[in-house]
Amino acid sequence: MESNDILEELLNIEVEIQDVQEQIRALIERQENLYERKSELSAILEACKESGKEASNVASSAVENWSGPFDWDSEADDVRLNVFGISSYRANQREIINAIMSGRDVLVIMAAGGGKSLCYQLPAVLRDGIALVISPLLSLIQDQVMGLTALGIPAYMLTSTNKGDEKFIYKALEKGEEELKILYVTPEKISKSKRFMSKLEKCHHAGRLSLISIDEAHCCSQWGHDFRPDYKSLGILKTQFPNVPMVALTATATQRVQNDLIEMLHIPRSVKFVSTVNRPNLFYMVKEKSSVGKVVIDEIAEFIQESYPNNQSGIVYCFSRKECEQVAKELRERGISADYYHADMDVNAREKVHMRWSNNRLQVIVGTVAFGMGINKPDVRFVIHHSLSKSMETYYQESGRAGRDGLPSECLLYFRPGDVPRQSSMVFYENSGLQNLYDIVRYCQSKRQCRRSAFFRHFAEPLQECNGMCDICAFSSEVKEMDVSGHAKLMVSFLQDMQTNDQRSTMLQLVDKMKVKQKELGSELKREEIEQLILHLLMQRFLKEEFQHTAYATNAYIAVGPLAKQILQGKKSVKLEIYAEQRTKTGIRSVKRCLGSSGLELKLDELRKELSCAHGGIFPHSVLSTEQIILLTSQKPNSLEQLEKVIGKLKTEKYGNRILEQIEKYSDFKTTDKQETVGRDAKRSKTKKNLVLIESSEDEE
Ligand SMILES: Nc1ncnc2c1ncn2[C@@H]1O[C@H](COP(=O)(O)OP(=O)(O)OP(=O)(O)O)[C@@H](O)[C@H]1O
Ligand SMILES: [Mg+2]
């Protein structure tokens, strides 16, 4: 054997070893994920077996009966209705409140908008002393404090900017002389301010620390989607104040995150309440995204104008800051009141946009993910993703900003394969970044599987009915399978040749090359179908993405994947799913029954805006929630007593007369209007000698 041959063989073996190592690495990663998933699924199965319960209340591990009766039942009901203006509890709220009132530590997993705040705010009002609430963002805290103040509950926040409040708060903690019920702080206060901790200890020592609440608790865990290092130090709270009930709340936590939280916060004996991740009021839909930017904006604008003509609030999420500015501008050019929000803006400008939107003076915020956790607006009617999120978890969170008031809302995701490399080159260095991205790509590509079921599967929860609340379940479009094994083989072997020649190809370049190459097969796929095929092969690990840094960006290339041999050896057939016929034109079904469908609703909406300005700039939804407006419109109370039953004493005292005045005015107007109609129609019937049937039009015109 000549030394050249030996060298060549050595080189080949080296390459093959690298290839095998790569496959082993990929398989080990896959194995780890499968183990994790397996343990999650087993845990959930156990929980289901134990409780014998259905999915609607998945895993309340509580053995005790937390529904009651308890001594504080009637007082709690009174505060719920007359202070918070809430007419009945939602799932698990009563039980959580009872567990906290009984002095237990509690872990709450409840979907976005499920009503977690009430679970600690109500016990905070009922229990003697001061409740401490840890929350990650100032904007969230401001929102909560403003809302509680509007309800007459003495709530404050400790920030470095307001020294006046600081003095007051320290006095309240130390001496108990001032009126303070709920104190909000960011976790930095616990980890960094010795002074604060010493005041808190004094408060506890005097028996005045009523409970500790840790909101957005997933921030504690580095396995959560939004880990914050300062949350790590919160373990000290249970050590210092062991007898004070602690409640940790979050919208999403996998089994792993839940275990992490219990350990980090030192609450091993906590009562756990896990509610379903299902958001039955949200309609999920994936839209094929045109490669022409203008067409996408036209579609989005048309959707907003047709479905939400009364300025109902929405969010459009974009990939980059530049894209946010561009999309906002183009929406404005199409007559939609929209503005952008991203991390590059200065704080004041950002706050201004947020405020205009929260006060319903701006319809649409076009934001990056920076516009995320701080949003507390309950009546967001639509969330549109101009490009895909980086994982199922973040998509669930972001789309979950819609419909927190429980009313029907829509979540649209515009997807095209070309957006995938943009995301993958951002996430590939994160822990399981690519894996998470590919999960949401599968969600987008799916043409048969209910969107909702993908969430259940992701969060390891038993399936529930979708009730036609996603595009797959709502529209019956026939799906065909197309055998593209020949194209797949051609693509993989072509990439292999390129790699042998030290060449690389991006997704776009590969599509161009395949357009030409596929002619040899005599069967041509469309551009979009080739893109779809590339993604399909990526998801199955027949191909893989590789990344290279340049001075300005990270480029994503398509390369031969660990399982490519199966394609090359013809062991695997590859099929693409395609719609047999075009789906409906815009494809968007309106899930209406929100504000603006009747005259009185609009009048009450205007009134809440006016009252919110008059009462020190609180948000309109703090005056009346959309749900309350809908109730008032259907029940039309005509006395303060009747009104109280719908919105509670406090709001009735504050705004009752104006609300009744408006209802009365509108009813008068309707009656006059009806009488006139009767008159007109009577005349018409006289002249035409016809019987005219006048139906009660109610408010559902
Ligand atoms: N029992 C109830 N009946 C009617 N509305 C309620 C009830 N409980 C809470 N709400 C309302 O639902 C909305 C969402 O509540 P909340 O802010 O507590 O949600 P959350 O679970 O903390 O959500 P997120 O995870 O997004 O923070 C608020 O407008 C709140 O007033
Ligand atoms: Mg919350």
UniProtKB/TrEMBL annotation:
Residue intervals of the Helicase ATP-binding domain: 97-271
Catalytic activity: ATP + H2O = ADP + phosphate + H(+); Couples ATP hydrolysis with the unwinding of duplex DNA by translocating in the 3'-5' direction
Coiled-coil region(s): 3-37
Biological process terms in GO annotation: DNA replication; double-strand break repair via homologous recombination
Positions of the Helicase C-terminal domain: 296-445
HRDC domain location: 594-673
Family matches, as CDD domains: DEXHc_RecQ1, SF2_C_RecQ
One Pfam family named in its UniProt record: DEAD
GO cellular component: chromosome; cytoplasm; mediator complex
Record-level Gene Ontology MF annotations: 3'-5' DNA helicase activity; ATP binding; DNA binding; four-way junction helicase activity; hydrolase activity; metal ion binding
Cofactor(s) listed in the protein's UniProt record: Mg(2+)
Main location as per UniProt: nucleus
Keywords on record: ATP-binding, Coiled coil, DNA-binding, Helicase, Hydrolase, Isomerase, Metal-binding, Nucleotide-binding, Nucleus
Keyword Translocase in annotation: no
Similarity-based family: Belongs to the helicase family. RecQ subfamily.
Protein name: ATP-dependent DNA helicase
Organism: Psophocarpus tetragonolobus (Winged bean)
